[in-house]
């Protein structure tokens, strides 16, 4: 026998042996644009063990398969990067509903050889000695269409830990499939190696998780704390529009309540936030309290002002609490982004730009009104019409600037004092 022929036959024999040695299994393959989500299951007929292989893209923080038709009561196997970037962690978890699943330490899933992060894929070869029933459900090894769920998620907030109880963010895609367990349970012990779909069928399309509560929470809180509240403050401080100020801030407060409702809804979804112990949640709730106080203070200040034409202690409190609430609200957005596992850099940039825009608007309007008032306040100005530019170009330099540094008055409610009365410097 020639050497090449001998080599060929040996290889062929090895191949046949390898194929027949691989335990038969059911395999679910979900073809994506540039990768496959693969779950292959072998139910050992001689013991209570199950063996599975899970392969998914490491471009996402985690990948998971769950036994059951929905998250609630399903036993899920979640794979994510280990402490070593070449290692994979497999975490058995159970959820009470459509919420973050919690690590189930009594489920004995262990990694078998060949597991790790290979070629930017999570590769999990695993054995479980007690996965046929668990608190809340069971695997029917006689079923021809045992339901399963799958998911992977997000392309940010990556996990790298050997801890099986790591916090995880919501999935970005998920879906459902059935598996023929009679096909999966005809083999011997061992991790299956299926790469073609066999004995499994997808149910419906892979769904995108749009995560509406998070979008609404982000938009409402951003809109109110970064845009509307500062804008409402400008309305009173720079152009003295009382009604516009009141309407904007009340409207913004209503939006905050909407954001609060979605925030509470979101909090209940995650193990980390379920008990309202994170700094973002605590500061957020304190700020809600402050905002309510701030609204009442604004009203009391206004009533007092109309009565006395002077600032009161309520005015000062309203002014300072307003500043505190806006700055703390923006800081709390950073804590929120951190909680959601998002980068804060983009938000920092937006805050700087918006602050810059507000500063320019404030400066332009304020310096204009100061020049005008300064000119009108001079003795000579009374001899000229307001709109005569020649009278504005020559303002009095002997009037101390500090007298005019206070923002302008309420124009709508200000009652002009009788002629001859001293100017009121306490107006805001
Ligand atoms: C995905 O699986 C199909 C077979 O189901 C295979 O033809 C294809 O090469 C696989 N793609 C990748 C990127 O592994
Ligand atoms: C857990 O599984 C491993 C095999 O993967 C086995 O050796 C071990 O005995 C099991 N432990 C328990 C408590 O069942």
From TrEMBL:
Residues 216-337 form the Cytochrome b561 domain. Residues 62-153 form the DOMON domain. The chain crosses the membrane at residues 219-239, 251-270, 282-300, 320-339, 345-365. Pfam families: CDH-cyt, Cytochrom_B561. InterPro entries: Cellobiose_DH-like_cyt, Cyt_b561/ferric_Rdtase_TM, DOMON_domain. SUPFAM superfamilies: CBD9-like. Keywords: Electron transport, Membrane, Signal, Transmembrane, Transmembrane helix, Transport. GO terms for cellular component: membrane. Residues 386-428 are annotated as: Disordered. Residues 1-21 form the signal peptide. Its main location: membrane. It is found in: Membrane. The keyword Transmembrane applies. This is DOMON domain-containing protein.
């Amino acid at each position: 026998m020639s050497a090449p022929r001998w080599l060929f036959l040996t290889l062929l024999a090895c191949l046949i042996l390898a194929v027949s040695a691989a335990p038969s299994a059911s395999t679910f393959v979900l073809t994506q644009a540039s990768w496959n989500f693969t779950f292959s299951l072998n139910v050992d007929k001689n013991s209570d063990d199950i063996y599975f292989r899970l392969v998914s893209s490491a471009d996402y923080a985690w990948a998971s398969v769950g036994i059951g038709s929905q998250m609630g009561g399903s036993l899920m196997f979640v794979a994510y990067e280990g402490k070593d970037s070449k290692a994979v962690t497999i975490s058995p978890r159970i959820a009470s509903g459509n919420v973050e699943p919690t690590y189930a330490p009594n489920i004995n899933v262990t990694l078998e050889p060949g597991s790790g992060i290979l070629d930017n894929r999570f590769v999990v070869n695993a054995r479980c000695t007690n996965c046929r029933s668990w608190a809340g459900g069971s695997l029917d090894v006689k079923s021809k269409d045992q339901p399963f769920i799958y998911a992977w998620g997000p392309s940010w907030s990556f996990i790298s830990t050997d801890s099986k109880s790591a916090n995880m963010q919501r999935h970005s895609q998920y879906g459902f499939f059935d598996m023929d367990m009679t096909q999966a349970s005809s083999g011997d012990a061992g991790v299956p190696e299926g790469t073609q779909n066999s004995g499994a069928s997808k149910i419906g399309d892979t769904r995108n998780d749009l995560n509406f509560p998070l979008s609404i929470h982000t938009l409402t809180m951003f809109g109110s704390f970064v845009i509307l509240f500062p804008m409402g403050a400008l309305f009173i401080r720079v152009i003295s529009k009382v009604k516009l100020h009141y309407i904007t801030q009340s409207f913004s407060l209503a939006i905050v309540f909407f954001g609060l409702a979605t925030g509470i809804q979101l909090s209940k979804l995650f193990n980390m936030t379920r008990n309202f112990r994170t700094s973002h949640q605590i500061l957020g709730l304190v700020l809600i309290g402050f905002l309510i106080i701030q609204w009442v203070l604004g009203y009391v200040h206004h009533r007092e002002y109309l009565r006395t034409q002077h600032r009161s202690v309520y005015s000062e409190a309203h002014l300072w609490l307003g500043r505190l609430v806006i700055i703390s609200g923006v800081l709390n957005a950073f804590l929120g982004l951190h909680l959601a596992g998002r980068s804060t850099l983009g938000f920092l940039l937006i805050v700087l730009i918006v602050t810059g825009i507000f500063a320019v608007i404030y400066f332009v309007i304020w310096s204009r009104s100061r020049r005008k008032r300064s000119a009108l306040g001079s003795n000579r100005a009374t001899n000229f019409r307001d709109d005569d530019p020649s009278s504005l170009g020559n303002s009095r330099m002997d009037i101390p600037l500090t007298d005019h540094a206070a923002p302008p008055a309420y124009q709508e409610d200000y009652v002009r004092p009788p002629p001859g009365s001293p100017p009121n410097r306490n107006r805001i």
